[in-house]
Each structure stands twice: as structure tokens, then as C-alpha cells.
């Protein structure tokens, strides 16, 4: 087990370095410069380059960059808010994104589990068809379609919820984005829970506990659900990706001042320190979650770690 | 357990029965794998529906833009922001040219003008633009399958077949690559290159094939120790022949299933990029960019967004249904209960 965890950790570190290198090199190759003003003379340009360390050799800048990144210093923004430290921008925006992402995961998993369990218990009933319908719809429509539909009908027509985010009402104004963002989670979790539960419910040990007289609530929650949940951990990866991508669009639609909308703005106006910082942040979150999932999975299911840390599926 | 002796009456027992869990044995006449798969596919209503819808959408994507005199970039300011109106269906409530209680056609004196999906705020025909956009989504679908087939399949086959250090190196590479979020790769590509066709295609090429290579590798690991491979090797077949002529036909079903599942996510990626304004540049249109444009005027002209959203959703739904159906048809063992 220790070897397995160490190996996963090593891979995560290498991945992180590769990402840093890629971020750095690709921005080196990028056309254009942060100083897009044509009125700048050669001499002024040289002064600016020296000030921001852009005249150093590539390797030096890279080493310096890794040190800075790991200590949480992402440099300053060149364009969005001139000379504003990016770490301060992220500090202000990250909680909003995390709040919405967290709400979406919570809502999505709760409803998804509920739908999946009900569908599995009432196999081939109306509830089952409804779950299948919801999971097909949730996977087929991009999250922005839900966002648009929600903001048009519930926000604009019925005026139940505000159309845009406001920091004065951080809960009410995030209801619509949360629902839109959680649709994919609901669909995926419901689908997996349903098929896992059906399989577990027809297994020998459930029939044994049933004939021993275990109460139905206890049977479902303690005996069936716990075993059905193990494979569901594997779908966490696509869920995290979907949430990250979804947040970009959702934050755009509801004007939420999070890191997703920051990244989009930064790409559009070429603010490359911000692009690097946000990409790096996304990568760290992604790698950390993947690492946690892999280790968790190894802890729960001994077959995984016995297979020399071979990736499952 | 507290009261050891209980008296039971007949009514306390009921037959648990096995009717719900009974397994019926079926006997089949022998038939080829292909015919078997075809019959299973045909019996799956969702999959057939998906296939039909994809064919219909492809037809309109191919010929829709030619069906009227407008092109995707022809601007007619006099005809701007017209709601949908179809000749002969004027009394039908969504195609009567009335939006917000006003008939924009009569107001502008254009009684003999018809736009099936209406026009956008610049007076471009939304029918033509929607189908032009659909072309791009279908192009992305083709690219996704091609990338899966060419890069993913070959990578997985080679890695699984040779095993040992080759496999080790190739798998570590994949693990590192899959540790990088897709979003970051796409972001960097867009920053370095210009947004457009090439960027989206490249983004798909870099990461789209990882899932496929894992499937191909897992399959070849199962098969490469089998007798028919040994027989082929004994007869002097080279590695290339064993991989592509002997093993590949046996796992092709899995490969097709996997590549079908990658289509919706590829279309989704393009639509997402277009929506945040990093996709196909104007005046070209993709479904995502059409949705994004009409989103800006959604509260005033809600009808503009209907056609692209509808086509995109239908396309994604159909590909999902088709992929599910193909999986059930080609590999009944994997069928979800």
C-alpha cells in the first residue's frame, strides 16, 4: 500500500512539473506581448522587460517561475487590473467558484443517489423511466442550455430568482447556477447508482441478509448502498472535469466573479500571467482530486493495489 | 429472540416464489455475429431513433444551406430580427411570424418574405446558419472518431501487445497526459494559435484518444496469450500481421463502441468553446456560437436561440442513444441491466 501511494504521489509531482513546463513554454511561443501599446519606444520596452524579468534566459525564468508558483506568488496581472497581484485576485474569486462548485456537487450527488436508488428499487416502473430520461437528458444537453433555460423561465419570466450574481445575496443568486451546474452530476450519479444497485440487489449476500430478516431500510443503506458506492468513485474524474468546464460557461452566463470567468476574460485580452495562474490552479485541483480518488479506491478495494497499482478500467 | 416459542398459523407464511428472479433459457437457431448484432440493434427503439435523427440532421446539414438563396454571411439589414414564418403554415402558432405580440413581417411590409427559423439581429438567415453550424458539429464528430481510431487504437494495441518496458513507458506517458486537465490544454492551444477549426481539431487530437487507448490495451492483453495468436506466430506471422489482422478483428466491436461514445463529448467540447467565444470566428457559425450570439438578445428575441439549441440537443441525444444501442448490439455482455 505504501508503495502504491508513493508511486501515485510521484506521478502527480511529475505531472505537475510537466504542466508547469507546458504552461511556461507555450506562453513563450505565444504571439504578441503584454505591452500592446504601439506608442512604446524600444527603450521604454527594454525598461519594462527588465522590470518584469522578461529579458532573462528562458531556463532562469522557468526555475524562478517554479519557485514563485509553489510559494503562491503568481506575479502581477498585466492587463485586467494593472499591477494587481494575481494571488489577491484569486483570493477574492476562488471562494465564489468553490461555493458554487460545492453546492453543485452536494445537490447533484444527493439527487443523483436518490433517483438511482429509487429507480433500482422500483425497477421498470415510472420512477425508473423518469431516472433514465433525466440521465439521458443530463448527459445530452450542455450545461449552458440548462443555464439559459433556467435563467429565461425562472429568472426572466417568473422572476423567482435574480438573473445575475450579486454578492449581497450570495445564496439566492447562486440557486440557478447551482442547479444548472449539477445537472450533469445528477445524470451521471443516478445512472451509475441505478445500474450498480440493481447488480448488488440481485447478489447472493443481499438475498442472504433479506432471508435473515434484515429490515429493508437497513438492508438498502448498510448492505446494498455501501457496496454499490465503490464503483461510483470512478466516475468522480469525469464529474470534476465537467464541473470545471461547466463553471467557465455558467460563470459567464450569470456574471459570477469566479475564476472561470477570470480565465475567459484573460484569454480574450491576452493577460498571460493570469492565464498561467488560473490554469495552474485548475491543474492542482484536478491532480489533487485524481490522487485522492486513486488512493481512496486503493484503500477501499484491495484488488486495485494488489495489481501493482495498475489503473482500474 | 426474547420469546423463544411462537405459534405460527398458516397465514403467517407466504410463498416467496421465484417468478421474479427466474431466468428463462432461450434456444436460438445459429446465426452469424453480424446478423445477431443487427437484430439486437433493430430491436432497440432508442438506437434506431438516434440513427434516423442523425441521418435526417446530416441530410439537412449537407443540403439545408442550399435550399434558399441566402448564404451564411449574407446580411440584409431590412430583414433583421424576423421571427420564424413558414409559407402555408401562417396560422400555426410558432411559424406565424408573430413575436412579442407583434407581427414583424406585416410591420415592415414584408408580406411575401418567409424565414423558416427567422433571422438574426444582422438579418442573416438562421436556417442557413443553423445547418452550416451543424456541419461543423458533424465535422468534429468525424474528427473525433478518426483520432480515436488512428491514434488511440494504435497506441493501445502497440502498448498492450509488446508489454514490458514498452508498455511501462507508454502507460506512464498516458498517466501524465491524463493528469493534465483538458481545459488547460485547450486554453493554451487557443492562446498560442488563433481560435478556429485547427485549434479545436488539435485539442481533440491531443487528449481525445486516451480513453480509447485504454480500452484497446485492456482488450489486447486478454487476447494476446490465446492459442490463435500462438498459432499465427508459429506460422511465422510478423507483429504487424498479428496485431492488425489476427487480434484487431476480434476487438473491433469494442473499438466501435468506444469511438461512438467519444463523439458526444467532442461535439460538446466544440460547442462549449464556441459558447465562450473561443470557437469558430465570425462570420462562420457553429451551433455553439449561434447559441452564444442569440443568448445576448435572448430576452428580446427568444426565438433565435430555439433552432440551434434544438438541433444541438437532438444531435447529442441521438449520438448518445446510438452509442448505447451499438454497445448493446455489439457486446451484449456489457449491457446495463
TrEMBL record, chain A:
<protein>
    <submittedName>
        <fullName>Oligopeptide transport system permease protein</fullName>
    </submittedName>
</protein>
<keyword id="KW-0472">Membrane</keyword>
<feature type="domain" description="ABC transmembrane type-1">
    <location>
        <begin position="94"/>
        <end position="293"/>
    </location>
</feature>
<dbReference type="InterPro" id="IPR000515">
    <property type="entry name" value="MetI-like"/>
</dbReference>
<feature type="transmembrane region" description="Helical">
    <location>
        <begin position="9"/>
        <end position="27"/>
    </location>
</feature>
<keyword id="KW-1003">Cell membrane</keyword>
<comment type="similarity">
    <text>Belongs to the binding-protein-dependent transport system permease family.</text>
</comment>
<feature type="transmembrane region" description="Helical">
    <location>
        <begin position="133"/>
        <end position="156"/>
    </location>
</feature>
<dbReference type="InterPro" id="IPR035906">
    <property type="entry name" value="MetI-like_sf"/>
</dbReference>
<dbReference type="GO" id="GO:0005886">
    <property type="term" value="C:plasma membrane"/>
</dbReference>
<keyword id="KW-0812">Transmembrane</keyword>
<keyword id="KW-1133">Transmembrane helix</keyword>
<feature type="transmembrane region" description="Helical">
    <location>
        <begin position="168"/>
        <end position="190"/>
    </location>
</feature>
<feature type="transmembrane region" description="Helical">
    <location>
        <begin position="274"/>
        <end position="300"/>
    </location>
</feature>
<feature type="transmembrane region" description="Helical">
    <location>
        <begin position="228"/>
        <end position="254"/>
    </location>
</feature>
<feature type="transmembrane region" description="Helical">
    <location>
        <begin position="100"/>
        <end position="121"/>
    </location>
</feature>
<dbReference type="GO" id="GO:0055085">
    <property type="term" value="P:transmembrane transport"/>
</dbReference>
<keyword id="KW-0813">Transport</keyword>
<dbReference type="Pfam" id="PF00528">
    <property type="entry name" value="BPD_transp_1"/>
</dbReference>
UniProtKB/TrEMBL annotation, chain B:
<dbReference type="Pfam" id="PF12911">
    <property type="entry name" value="OppC_N"/>
</dbReference>
<dbReference type="GO" id="GO:0005886">
    <property type="term" value="C:plasma membrane"/>
</dbReference>
<keyword id="KW-0571">Peptide transport</keyword>
<keyword id="KW-0653">Protein transport</keyword>
<feature type="transmembrane region" description="Helical">
    <location>
        <begin position="47"/>
        <end position="67"/>
    </location>
</feature>
<dbReference type="GO" id="GO:0015833">
    <property type="term" value="P:peptide transport"/>
</dbReference>
<feature type="transmembrane region" description="Helical">
    <location>
        <begin position="197"/>
        <end position="216"/>
    </location>
</feature>
<feature type="transmembrane region" description="Helical">
    <location>
        <begin position="173"/>
        <end position="191"/>
    </location>
</feature>
<protein>
    <submittedName>
        <fullName>Oligopeptide transport system permease protein</fullName>
    </submittedName>
</protein>
<keyword id="KW-1133">Transmembrane helix</keyword>
<dbReference type="GO" id="GO:0015031">
    <property type="term" value="P:protein transport"/>
</dbReference>
<keyword id="KW-0472">Membrane</keyword>
<feature type="domain" description="ABC transmembrane type-1">
    <location>
        <begin position="134"/>
        <end position="323"/>
    </location>
</feature>
<dbReference type="InterPro" id="IPR035906">
    <property type="entry name" value="MetI-like_sf"/>
</dbReference>
<feature type="transmembrane region" description="Helical">
    <location>
        <begin position="300"/>
        <end position="323"/>
    </location>
</feature>
<comment type="similarity">
    <text>Belongs to the binding-protein-dependent transport system permease family. OppBC subfamily.</text>
</comment>
<dbReference type="Pfam" id="PF00528">
    <property type="entry name" value="BPD_transp_1"/>
</dbReference>
<dbReference type="GO" id="GO:0055085">
    <property type="term" value="P:transmembrane transport"/>
</dbReference>
<dbReference type="InterPro" id="IPR025966">
    <property type="entry name" value="OppC_N"/>
</dbReference>
<keyword id="KW-1003">Cell membrane</keyword>
<feature type="transmembrane region" description="Helical">
    <location>
        <begin position="251"/>
        <end position="280"/>
    </location>
</feature>
<keyword id="KW-0812">Transmembrane</keyword>
Amino acid at each position: 500500500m505504501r508503495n502504491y501511494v508513493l508511486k501515485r504521489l510521484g506521478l502527480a509531482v511529475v505531472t505537475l512539473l510537466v504542466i508547469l513546463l507546458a504552461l511556461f513554454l507555450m506562453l513563450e511561443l505565444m504571439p504578441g506581448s503584454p505591452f500592446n501599446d504601439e506608442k512604446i519606444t524600444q527603450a521604454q520596452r527594454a525598461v519594462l522587460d527588465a522590470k518584469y524579468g522578461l529579458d532573462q534566459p528562458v531556463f532562469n525564468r522557468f526555475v524562478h517561475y517554479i519557485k514563485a508558483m509553489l510559494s503562491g506568488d503568481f506575479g502581477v496581472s498585466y492587463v485586467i487590473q494593472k499591477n494587481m497581484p494575481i494571488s489577491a485576485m484569486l483570493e477574492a474569486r476562488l471562494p465564489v467558484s468553490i461555493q458554487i462548485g460545492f453546492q453543485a456537487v452536494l445537490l447533484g450527488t444527493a439527487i443523483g443517489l436518490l433517483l438511482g436508488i429509487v429507480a433500482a428499487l422500483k425497477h421498470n416502473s415510472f420512477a425508473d423511466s423518469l431516472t433514465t430520461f433525466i440521465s439521458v437528458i443530463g448527459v445530452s444537453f450542455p450545461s449552458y442550455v440548462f443555464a439559459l433555460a433556467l435563467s429565461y423561465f425562472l429568472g426572466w419570466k417568473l422572476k423567482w430568482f435574480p438573473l445575475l450574481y450579486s454578492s449581497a445575496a450570495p445564496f439566492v443568486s447562486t440557486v440557478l447556477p447551482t442547479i444548472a451546474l449539477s445537472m450533469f452530476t445528477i445524470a451521471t450519479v443516478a445512472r451509475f447508482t441505478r445500474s450498480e444497485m440493481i447488480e448488488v440487489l440481485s447478489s447472493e449476500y443481499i438475498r442472504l441478509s433479506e432471508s435473515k430478516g434484515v429490515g429493508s431500510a437497513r438492508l438498502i443503506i448498510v448492505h446494498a448502498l455501501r457496496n454499490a458506492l465503490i464503483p461510483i468513485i470512478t466516475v468522480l474524474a469525469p464529474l470534476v472535469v465537467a464541473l470545471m468546464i461547466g463553471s467557465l460557461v455558467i460563470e459567464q452566463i450569470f456574471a459570477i466573479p469566479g475564476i472561470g470567468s477570470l480565465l475567459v476574460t484573460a484569454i480574450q485580452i491576452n493577460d498571460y500571467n493570469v492565464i498561467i495562474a488560473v490554469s495552474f490552479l485548475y491543474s492542482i485541483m484536478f491532480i489533487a482530486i485524481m490522487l485522492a480518488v486513486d488512493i481512496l479506491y486503493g484503500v477501499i478495494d484491495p484488488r486495485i493495489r494488489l495489481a501493482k497499482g495498475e489503473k482500474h478500467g | 429472540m426474547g420469546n423463544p416459542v411462537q405459534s405460527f398459523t398458516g397465514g403467517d407464511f407466504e410463498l416467496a416464489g421465484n417468478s421474479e428472479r427466474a431466468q428463462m433459457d432461450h434456444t436460438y437457431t445459429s446465426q452469424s455475429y453480424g446478423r445477431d448484432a443487427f437484430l439486437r440493434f433493430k430491436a432497440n427503439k432508442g438506437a434506431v431513433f438516434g440513427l434516423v435523427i442523425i441521418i435526417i440532421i446530416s441530410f439537412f446539414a449537407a443540403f439545408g444551406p442550399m435550399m434558399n438563396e441566402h448564404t451564411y454571411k449574407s446580411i440584409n439589414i431590412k430583414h433583421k430580427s424576423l421571427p420564424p414564418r413558414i409559407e402555408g403554415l401562417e396560422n400555426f402558432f410558432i411559424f406565424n411570424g408573430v413575436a412579442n405580440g407583434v407581427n414583424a413581417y406585416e410591420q415592415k411590409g414584408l408580406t411575401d418574405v418567409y424565414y423558416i427559423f427567422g433571422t438574426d439581429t444582422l438579418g442573416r438567415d438562421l436556417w442557413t446558419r443553423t445547418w452550416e453550424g451543424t456541419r461543423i458539429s458533424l465535422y468534429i464528430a468525424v474528427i473525433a472518431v478518426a483520432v480515436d481510431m488512428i491514434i488511440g487504437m494504435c497506441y493501445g494495441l502497440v502498448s498492450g501487445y509488446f508489454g514490458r518496458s514498452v508498455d511501462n513507458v507508454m502507460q506512464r506517458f498516458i498517466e501524465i497526459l491524463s493528469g493534465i486537465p483538458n481545459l488547460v490544454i485547450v486554453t493554451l492551444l487557443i492562446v498560442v494559435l488563433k481560435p478556429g477549426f485547427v485549434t479545436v481539431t488539435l485539442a481533440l487530437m491531443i487528449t481525445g484518444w486516451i480513453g480509447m487507448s485504454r480500452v484497446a490495451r485492456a482488450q489486447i492483453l486478454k487476447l494476446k496469450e490465446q492459442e490463435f495468436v500462438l498459432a499465427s506466430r508459429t506460422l511465422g506471422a510478423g507483429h504487424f500481421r498479428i496485431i492488425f489482422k489476427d487480434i484487431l478483428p476480434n476487438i473491433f466491436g469494442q473499438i466501435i463502441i468506444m469511438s461512438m461514445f467519444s463523439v458526444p463529448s467532442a461535439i460538446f467540447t466544440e460547442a462549449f468553446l464556441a459558447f465562450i467565444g473561443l470557437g469558430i470566428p465570425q462570420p462562420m457559425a457553429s451551433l455553439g456560437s449561434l447559441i452564444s450570439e442569440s443568448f445576448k438578445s435572448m430576452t428580446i428575441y427568444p426565438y433565435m436561440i430555439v433552432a440551434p439549441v434544438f438541433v444541438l440537443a437532438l444531435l447529442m441525444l441521438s449520438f448518445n442513444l446510438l452509442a448505447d444501442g451499438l454497445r448493446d448490439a455489439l457486446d451484449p455482455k456489457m449491457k446495463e441491466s
